[in-house]
Design goal:
Elements (H helix, E strand, L loop, with lengths): L3 H4 L9 E4 L3 H13 L6 E4 L10 E3 L11 E4 L6 H8 L8 E4 L6 H7 L5 E6 L9 E7 L5 H11 L3 E5 L3 H11 L2 H18 L4 H21 L4 H8 L5 H10 L3 H24 L1
Parallel strand pairs: 1-2, 1-4, 2-3, 4-5, 5-6, 7-8
Antiparallel strand pairs: 6-7
Helix pairs in contact: 6-11, 7-8
Bound molecules: 1,4-dihydronicotinamide adenine dinucleotide and (2S)-3,4-dihydro-2H-pyrrole-2-carboxylic acid.
């Protein structure tokens, strides 16, 4: 999925790209960018630990005497935003595209903290961004023009599927699906493996079978013109063993109800974080 042609050229000119925070998510995005062919000389990672990352400049604090960032990517925890703002905000300007991956922190909350900006674009990535197979939700502030939105999309397109949202509230709710989603699927893989163990499989074998089955099924669905429901029916021979298992999943729409509760809980927490940042 990573397409180096999209990223090797200019994004927001050719000025510095600062990545603030390179933990689970920022680190995955950085890996995706480097694999996607971004010019590493453009990237400065700002992280309190200063732990080096091969190929890019790493600083413990923003450079106060350097060139203004063309892109400022915020990737610390939302709760750390206010700690980071005093050092960052004075260094942004009319030429700085602010890209925030912070869950819940809305554009007006960011604009209040970063009054000098070219545009503010929220991105909700997910961790498969690190292998170029992420999902990138995008939402831009009202003052973002088409060129700024194009630059934001060019930056994240090599990391995965891009989907724009005009409605910021819907963007927040969608993040429960794709931003949090990998965690739910990892739990599902583990649950399948444990169920396999319950049928007598060795733990390592059950884990291998569960992971390969999920990977194969996802790739089959991604490459198929048929819906997942039809693909499920193709596994379930009438009167066979799959149908017996599907009957358990379908009874009382058990899985649908579980996933509805899961996404609702995540979306609620997202809304709480939005309120805290306002
Ligand atoms: N983990 C995920 O799957 C996703 C995370 N996000 C968002 O990404 C952001 C980061 O989350 P994670 O990477 O999971 O957290 P994390 O805790 O793994 O990484 C955050 C990093 O920011 C650093 N940091 C803390 N204060 C800082 C400061 N003042 N300046 C620079 N760096 C600072 C920390 O040292 C840490 O390495 C959050 O805002 C979260 O909402 C969004 C989508 C998915
Ligand atoms: O858990 C979180 O708040 C972030 C947002 C989406 C995934 N991780």
């Amino acid at each position: 999925m990573a397409d180096s042609s999209k990223i090797a050229g200019t994004i927001a000119g050719d000025g510095p790209i600062w990545l603030v925070g390179a933990g689970n998510m920022g680190g995955a995005m950085l890996r995706g960018w480097l694999d996607g062919g971004i010019d590493p000389a453009r990237i400065t990672v700002i992280r309190p630990s200063g732990t080096p990352i091969a190929g890019v400049t790493v600083l413990t604090a923003p450079p106060i005497d350097g060139e203004m960032p063309a892109v400022l990517v915020l990737a610390m925890k939302p709760q750390k935003l206010d700690e980071a703002v005093p050092a960052l905000a004075p260094l942004t300007g009319e030429g700085t595209l602010i890209v925030s991956v912070l869950a819940g922190v809305e554009v007006p909350s960011l604009a209040k903290r970063f009054p000098q900006h070219r545009a503010i674009v929220r991105v909700m990535p997910n961790t498969p961004s690190g292998i170029g197979q992420g999902v990138m939700l995008l939402h831009a502030g009202a003052d973002a023009d088409a060129a700024a939105k194009g630059d934001a999309e060019a930056l994240v397109a090599p990391l995965g599927l891009c989907e724009w949202f005009d409605d910021e509230a819907l963007f927040g709710r969608a993040s429960a699906l794709s931003g949090c989603g990998p965690a739910f699927l990892f739990r599902f893989i583990d649950a399948m493996a444990r169920a396999g163990e319950g049928q007598g499989l060795a733990p390592d074998q059950a884990a291998r079978l569960a992971l390969a089955t999920v990977q194969g099924a996802a790739q089959l669905a991604a490459g198929s013109e048929e819906s997942p429901a039809t693909l499920a029916d193709r596994v379930a021979s009438p009167g066979g063993s799959t149908r017996a298992g599907l009957n358990v999943i379908d009874d009382g729409e058990a899985l649908d109800r579980l996933m509805a509760d899961v996404l609702a809980a995540s979306a609620r927490r997202n809304e709480e974080m939005a309120a805290a940042a306002r």
